[in-house]
Amino acid sequence: MEKLDLSDIQGLVARGYGKLRAARFLLLRTEDPGLARSWLAGLAPTITPSDEDPRETAIHIAFTTTGLRALGLPEEAMSGFSNEFREGMTTPHRQRILGDAGENDPASWRWGGPDNARVDAVLMLYAVNEDALAALLGTHAEALEAAKIEVVTPLHTTDIGNGEHFGFRDGISQPTVEGMGRDGPSPSVIKPGEFVLGYKNEYGLLTDRPLVPPASDPGGLLAKDSGGSKSRDFGRNGTYLVIRTIEQNVPRFWQSLDGLSRGPQNEPDAAARLRLGAKMVGRWPGGAPLALSPDHDDPALSTANAFGYHPGDAEGLRCPVGAHVRRTNPRDSLDPNPGSQASLRLNRRHRILRRGRAYGPPISVEDAISGNDAGEERGLHFICLAANIARQFEFIQHTWANNPKFDGLYDEVDPLMGPRGPRGATFAMPANPVRERVQGLPEFVTTRGGAYFFLPGTSALRYLASLS
Amino acid sequence: MATTHQVAITIVAPIVPASLERLQATLVEMSANPGTSILPFSQFNGVHFARLVIIPPIAGAATRSRSSLAFLLDCDAPERERLRQLVTTAGEGLDAVLGCCEGYPAVGARSGRSRMAYLRSHLRPLAACYVNTIGRPLKQIQQEATLRLELEQFLDGKKNAWSGKPATSVRGDILAFVQGRQDLRWALQPAPKPSLFWRVGEWLHLARGLLIVLAAVPFALMAAPFVIVALRRRELSDAADRLIPEDSHVEELAAVEDLLPQNQFTAIGEVKPGRFRQLVARTVLWLVNLGTRHIYNRGVLTGVKSIHAARWVFLDDYRQMVFSSNYDGSLENYMDDFIDKVSWGLNAVFSNGVGYPRTNWLVREGATDEQAFKSYIRTRQKLSEVWYTAYGQLTTLNIANNARIRAGLHGQLTEAAAAAWLRTL
Per the confidence metrics, is the pTM higher than 0.80? Predict the structure, then answer.
């Protein structure tokens, strides 16, 4: 097992701070490189490392390409970053990969789109409660102002417990990073190089990483390139961070399900409605997976994660093939040889660490159906970490979630978040003797913003601050 | 009995340098409507896929300094019928495209006969060819897709009518529906089978191939020590280039990717200098072709199911190799499939190309150097100026499932078999 340099890896890789219930993410634009570097020099020692489990507050910082260039990162480093990071989230091809068309088009985003203010960095602040967060924000606001760094958009979050706004428990299936000191079921233990640069990934290789000339690092802050060149490794202990602001239309979700699950006399059927929602998600609201508990929620299985789909549910009679959790983590479902170790090995190459937070006020199913809603926007700041955006985050989004052809299907997309065609989405639930199929599902989510960031290791932060 | 197999037609012609820009403009116009304009592939019989690619010359080679046009067709046999239809119904389109190439009949000399002669004289032999499922003609694919849509709609209309009913009785209702539809009755007959004549020909081809392999064994054994030494010497010294593709190159390629569930891929590589690598590449591809023609001809290419059709062609006296394919899903997924499922096969072929990631004993490592391999793929990839697919919304798995749906309409089924069949819908 490789030993991880936990004190140099930002702590967001190691944990999602479930106990730090309050959080705000500040999207920043720098003006004065010199002032920004001094600000970063002051910030770097306060960044929470992976070997600390903070009880009060946590602070993280990540940069876009414009941010790194503004701070003066040598241009040589740029070719070592992935093409996805260099190009950003909003190219026409990436829009197709991510399903950002129509309502989701970056042209109408609130942040990160072509018509929005430039985003150079994101400062992520976590605290044990709202009061502590307010204090933390106060301190940082002063420092930012002094450094002439503008808060382009603050991303607010809301503590809605361990679920998401549609009402389902979230964040159950997380990969365990080998060497991060946590245990998990063996198929979920993933090589650290899948989530941190500078370590071996699931192919037993080092992911490409940004290197800088040694002359730019006279203080020797960065490690030498483990590939053997004279360059210094700016990427080591860093990783990529994806943020996407996804509005959730909860009333539309439950009203659609209500309409589709009504009885023969058009009477509401709460049990059928709940079942349809669970079929779409692949887990019951409490978290129990349909693959293990096909007919009802089960508190004993609320965090169950050690299961597969083969041979017990190969055809999706329990958890439909097109369900959200089966698409985004197919486990042992896919070729080669579904149900085999080879299938699990393939799945391990397409995992992400999710660190998202909800925003906006929660709403009950009853209020969502009756339309008793003040109209305030709600949703998810989807956040994930991955060493290879194309093979991990984009692959899950495009080849699995948004793919109408996923695992032999014809014309279905992820029922929760897949992009809809002009006639809405189709969702089939295999059953005996014939499948049930619902059609015309409207969009339940809308992308409102997003960007790709790089989350450097702490010595790389000190290096950035030392540039001139 | 019928002609059901497919053929891959490759026409390569050098482009008159002064006409290159005109040709490029023509191809841009074509690519806006690839099924209908200039060469209207959708109006021809039996064309599954078509593409036109401008092949640049090998950099720095003195032998060939000009670009060539490659015109590739994946279509139903027989080849002469396909060519005849091109010449008789799209003569002007051929003139617009091939008129930019060397030796094409002059304006006054263009006739069906002279165009056909030009096509025939520029046909290139394939080094190897792959078809996902040999013996499934275009018409069958399209008909069976329609059948599935009709049956799905029929099921939607019967919501809840069958709950608790045995599968055989549901199947009976579906059969009655098909029987009642004049336009679907064809589905009650099994799909056409290849002719006995063709099958005998295939058996003879396989027998001949195996005989050649057997006959070559003693020579191969004798040559083995020398070949191994030569191979190892080269493997250990050949440079793997690790070029990072230019962002602008990736952008150009990505601009036409993921517009449909299917995608196209064309790569052009330079074979490593010297006769040894050429010989290895030719031998391996000869074996690949034997395998794809006789073993991997039923939906799976050594674990990879997403490829509809692919081919390898040598150009310029084996100095250049062109690979083209039609596949389902994203390039990222396609490359992952290669790495995860068939890296040994790729290595054996492509490690004879300049810059390929280092292999070990011809088949090991190489493609499993994930990012080096993906960079190699992108740097060698060439934009297909024109690409046409007859069924861009259907994946190989869809097509195979559609065939199962039709097959389930025939004969008697047990309750279990009927239940399994209903699951295909």
Answer: yes
